[in-house]
Amino acid sequence: MIVIVITGGIGSGKTAVTDYLISKGYKVIDTDLMAHEITSKNGKAISYIRDVFGEEYILKDGSMNREKIRKLVYQDENKKKLLEKGTTDIIISDTKKMIEDYRKKGLEILFVAIPLFFENGGEKEKYFDKIWLVCSDMKKRLKRIKKRDNLDEHMIKKIMEKQMPDKDKEIKSDVVIKNSGTIEELHRKIDSLLFNLKENN
After folding, report:
1. Nearest residue to 189 (alpha-carbon basis) of 133, 149, 140
2. Mapping DSSP to helix (H, G, I), strand (E, B) and coil, where does residue 37 land?
3. What span, in angstroms and rounded, lies between the C-alpha atoms of 78 and 132?
4. Structure-derived torsion over alpha carbons of residues 91, 92, 96, 101, reported in degrees to the nearest 10
5. Tens digits of residue pLDDT in 110-124
6. Pairing mode, if any, of strands 109-113 and 27-30?
């Protein structure tokens, strides 16, 4: 089985890539979705967040207060590390288990979306065979994030500052997908990559 990481900075368009792959019938493990699930009501990380950060960071519905946590961790690096300790470890463990399950089932190609793959010290190791990096110009990224997350530009730039620059990620990646054009152009690029992937394996 070939396991391919899909990564990229905030607003680069990773979801557009994974949505298209899913529409083509490919399996995608989405660690962003997993992070959302474990910090939702009755999620695996809620008790940790309550114990470490306090009840004020839990909403009335039992989920994590994402806005409040976001403001906290981007102002305090130590708090950010504490949050990651209670969430990232769970996601890594669950992801590895899912990869092995798919391997046992005989799946040929599996994609794993990991937004902060390089920032978290990610290497190919034994779990990943290739890394696809999604990039986009700053104007496009800002527009996407404002529309999707309703964040102000100051907060968006603070988030971006914490992420590795694209030029450094490109050196470490096997494939760079430039996503500053139309959705049709993006789909054609993915189709070409999938064709080459099947031809060479």
Report:
1. 133
2. helix
3. 30
4. 0
5. 999 998 898 877 765
6. parallel
What tokens were used for 63? 């989920």
Beta bridge partners of 177: 134
Which H or E run includes 17? helix 14-23
Residue 201 pLDDT more than 70? no
**Residue 178: strand pairing partners:** 135
CA–CA dist 86, 79 (Å, integer): 11
Measured CA distances, 81 to 8, 58, 75, 156 (Å): 20, 18, 12, 19
Instruction: Count CA atoms closer than 13 A to 58's CA, side-chain side.
Output: 20
User: What radius of gyration, in Å, describes the C-alpha atoms of the chain?
Assistant: 17
110: phi then psi, degrees, rounded to nearest 5: -130, 135
